[in-house]
Recover the amino acids of this structure.
């Protein structure tokens, strides 16, 4: 299984959801996101949401993975 998988390419107009291994760094997440599902903005996908309302949740299918929002 890939370390980073795009699971929902559109969460509103500024976010998408990815399923990642818990230890994947933000830089790797953003690299995959910008390659797999370009945001269409000047900066592309530029922020991995790690706190607040979009805080990561444990994947229901694999407790070793997280569902994380990425913002453009």
């Amino acid at each position: 299984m890939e370390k980073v998988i795009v699971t929902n390419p559109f969460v509103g107009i500024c976010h998408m959801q990815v399923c990642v291994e818990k230890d994947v760094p933000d830089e790797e997440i953003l690299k995959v996101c910008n390659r797999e599902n370009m945001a269409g903005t000047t900066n592309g996908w530029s922020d991995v949401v790690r706190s607040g309302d979009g805080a990561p949740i444990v994947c229901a299918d694999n407790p070793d993975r997280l569902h994380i929002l990425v913002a453009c």
About this structure: Residues 26-36 form the longest helix (11 residues). The two ends are 25 Å apart (CA to CA).
